[in-house]
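Support request, please re-run this one:
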Amino acid sequence: MRDWRFNHIDFSTYPYYEGMDLGVSYSPNSLFVKVWAPTASQVEFKLYKHSLGGRPVRIESMIQATQGTWALTLPGDFKGFYFTFRVHDQGWLNETPGMDTRAVGINGRRGLVFDPRDTDPVDWKNDHPLNPVNPVDAIIYELHVRDFSIAPSSGMKHKGKFLAFTETETKTAQQLASGIDHLKELGITHVHLLPVFDFHSVDERKPDEQYNWGYDPLNYNSPEGSYSSNPDTVARIKEFKQLVQALHQAGIGVIMDVVYNHTGYTRRSWFNQTVPGYFYRQKSNGQFANASGCGNEFASERAMARKYMVDSLCYWASEFHLDGFRFDLMGVHDLETMNTIRKSLDELRPGMLLYGEGWTADQSPMDEKYRAVKHQVKQLDRIACFNDDMRDALKGNNFNGSSKGFVNGRTLNEEAVKFGVVGACFHPQIVYDYVESSTSAWAVEPWQCVNYVSCHDNFTLFDKLKLSCLDATDVELRKMQKLAAALILTSQGIPFLHAGSEFCRTKQGEHNSYKSPDSVNQIEWELKEQYADVYSYFQKLIRLRKEVPAFRMQAADEIRKHLHFSKNYQPGVLAYSILDFPGTWKSIQLIFNAQTEVLSVELDTHDWQVIALEDEIDTRGVGGLKNKHVEIPPLSMMILVKGAVNN
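Re-run finished. Output below.
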């Protein structure tokens, strides 16, 4: 039996292959095959008529080539055949579709020979990613493909599928916009899709019987088959392109959630069944390390592992016209690899949005000084990190349903909220000793910070508020939901929203719904009418952010120059001014009242114009002042402005 401990091997001695032709390359006249397997003594290539079962119709021995590769050329047209590789390395390993395959059959067990030209939708050549924006101009909306349309109330026909995104004029039972029309109506700029590469936890023969978020990668370079109309063909590729095309036509960018930090299988992964041990880190005792918390961690610092990530991302960006990537557990990856990714994507198309989770789920054998963690974001080239400081400051500890934050009743954590307001940058008015998990600013510029209060992980925001405020009324819970959104969408940095939070999405209190049924995970579109006031408020906040550049400053120096916090401390209250920022009023005053009582404030003069109060937000004004005394209702935001717009 094979020894799966590799602490005695120096992987740096393995040859590096620079070529871009790994995998299976199709032409009508021949099939060219190449695989990197430097420790193999033999490699077989097998062709099948079907994606599952049956005997191979052809078995070919590959020829050892240069730099650790094995190659094969077969004359003839093999389009529509399925294939596998088998490597001999201390005995025969399992058959796999290979690490580099771009099309697979049902459940991803065999690769599919295909002509890439067959996967382009009509007019695909005229589809283009959105024009690059400064990251702080983006408003990101995190969404799971299946959640989006699977509910009976969605009004969409292609339930749980990529094609649901191509449906227009869909309606809820209450005749409100759903689907892509809802996204346009809401006003977000980018959709962040939970994993859409091929993952192994859903049986594509009967996809309705299981559910998964998809953080268990199987084939990195092929779309997931359960989201397609036919997982046995190139439909999964073409239909994902149609999704991208439809969102682009709606003026919405597409960000792909990528999970290179670990694979769904460890010993049985395509990597380990091709080059045993190379693509994974090991502990000092030779066992597989587990910084991902999922059984293994990808060794991104090794030359061919780095190349794999770069080549894979460039393929998705170019072939599918994507606008950005979100890196799951980015802290597992090394800084050099992440910066190489930025450089390579810039060469392909400058300005793609890149951000990730700046932490790990467990200990890693790689020294933290080399890791792409939050506190080292300053060493990353235009790659942002999620601001979990702001998340927990607003609603309480993410893993404890009963804990509270600023919007749901906790006081004495206002400094952590201020830290989020300035996009995790240094500001002289913040006392960092009172920012619980960050004793100093970790962002150099605001576009390095993704501000959020909830995402697919853990409780939805509304569930968290209900669990932590058992005596709160429905009206109070709605106000807390709005207040959290107001803080996210007026703060510096990149705002990030969890799909459905705009109408108080619930998962019935489930804190980890990664494999819960549709009844838990689906977006319940009937909530759009039930929480119409919350939805309208989100719309207005998004419009406000787009209209007022002072909420989207592009440099930390601008924030320190123009944004000034009130010196009058009051528990459960946050107030600050933005003064003399170009393109907006001479003075903007924001007051957030997280108390359950009316807040009375004396202003310097009475010549302020109110542009936000309770549910009303309008840059043209929602009312003037009769005197210097103002009252801010409980659990709400007030914004006042004065002075001509400064151009």
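Residues 562-642 form a domain with the Immunoglobulin-like fold (CATH 2.60.40.1180). The chain has 13 helices and 27 strands.
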